[in-house]
Amino acid sequence: MKIQVKKYRFFGLMLAVNLVLYLLDRPLAQSSARNAAGFILEVLPIIPPVMVLMGLLDVWTPRKLVEDNLGAGSGVLGAMLAVVLGTAAAGPIYAAFPVAVSLRNKGATTANIAIFLGAWATIKIPMILMESSFIGLRFALLRLAFTIPGVLCVGYLMGKMVPENTPLGDPLPGEQGEVSGSFQKPATTSLAATGSIK
Amino acid sequence: MISYVLTVITLIALAISFTLDRKRTGRALRIGVRSLTSLAPVLLGMMGMVGLVLALIPPQLLSELFKHNGTAGFALVAVVGALITIPAPVAFPLAGSLVKLGASLSSMAAFITTLTMVGVLSAPMEIACFGKRFTLVRQSLSFVLAIAIGGLMGVFL
């Protein structure tokens, strides 16, 4: 992929700059390499477990159930599901775009898509441990406490300011009917609609 | 210390997941490896750059900027963060190293938020997916949110 190549290019550039620097000013290049190595060693033991945790969250989130409940009339529950879905996924925000497109095609509202993207970008439960190890636990929790309502606000305003996109795909069965009436437990109604519950 | 706790939590979660569903656990591991391999080059590049910048610019100068020019430092990191988009696991160590140089925590909160939520450079991709209006409004609102979070963090920390 293009992004992949770009990423490696950046690292290659840094190596090249360091190499040139080494020829020009040896101690400077050495201190630069020492700095970089220090950071990398600091990050090294933390990143792999975080990635595995995110993978676990990703596969254990009942995605279908969430996807089916982000449409018009999903209200507070839809917004919460958008946060949960975004939080549970792995990757930077641009990795979320294709997922968000498929959500939109399944009838998700603009507000819920914006909330999903925001949550995906900044709210990651496994990341809290990482954030607190690099900056501080108080910082991480406080930032989380401000970010969740903030992302919800952005979503709400987006819903007001950006016209709804018409879904491109086929509307899911069971989503056309009166959704707005019952948001007590759409999860179970959706399961009842799709699965075989007696 | 945190890394041990993290590793133990991960291993326990993996074990539980494995007993519940082997196939799914395998999928989770593959996702983990995939995000690790796609993250590694960015992370290495970013660390290389931070190392270089810190070697070239005397740390005292940077901390002077953050200390005496609080507002300027705040605006600077917020705007820099808005230009580029990097994944959260890269943003945290970067912010952590800036804190060690004397950057204020409130500016780092704004920095992390713009870094992860606002990306002028990734905007074309977002426009292709959701249209101009969606992208413009979302990014502007997110930038305002980042400033607000930074300000609030300044009050509480």
Protein described:
The complex is a heterodimer of chains A (198) and B (157). Chain A has two domains: 2-43, no CATH class; 47-193, no CATH class. In chain A, 73% of the residues lie in helices and 0% in strands. Chain A has helices at residues 2-24, 26-43, 47-60, 63-67, 75-88, 93-105, 110-122, 125-134, 137-161, 186-194. In chain A, helix 1 (2-24) packs antiparallel against helix 2, helix 7 runs antiparallel to helix 9 (137-161) and helix 8 packs across helix 9 (137-161). The longest helix of chain A is centred in the C-terminal third of the chain and has 25 residues, at 137-161. Chain A is elongated. Chain B is built from eight helices and no strands. Chain B starts with a helix and ends with a helix. The model of chain B has no long low-confidence stretch (mean pLDDT 84). Classes of the chains: A mainly alpha (198), B mainly alpha (157). At the A-B interface, helix 1, helix 2, helix 3, helix 6 and helix 7 of A face helix 1, helix 2, helix 5, helix 6 and helix 7 of B.
Give me the count of strands of chain B: 0
The average pLDDT score of chain B comes to: 84
End-to-end gap of chain B: 24 Å
Topology, number of strands of chain A: 0
**Beta-strand content bin of chain A:** under 5%
Strand and helix map with partners:
The complex is a heterodimer of chains A (about 200) and B (about 160).
Chain A: H1 2-24, H2 26-43, H3 47-60, H4 63-67, H5 75-88, H6 93-105, H7 110-122, H8 125-134, H9 137-161, H10 186-194
Helix pairs in contact in A: 1-2, 5-7, 6-7, 7-9, 8-9
Chain B: H1 2-20, H2 22-56, H3 59-68, H4 70-83, H5 88-100, H6 105-117, H7 123-130, H8 132-156
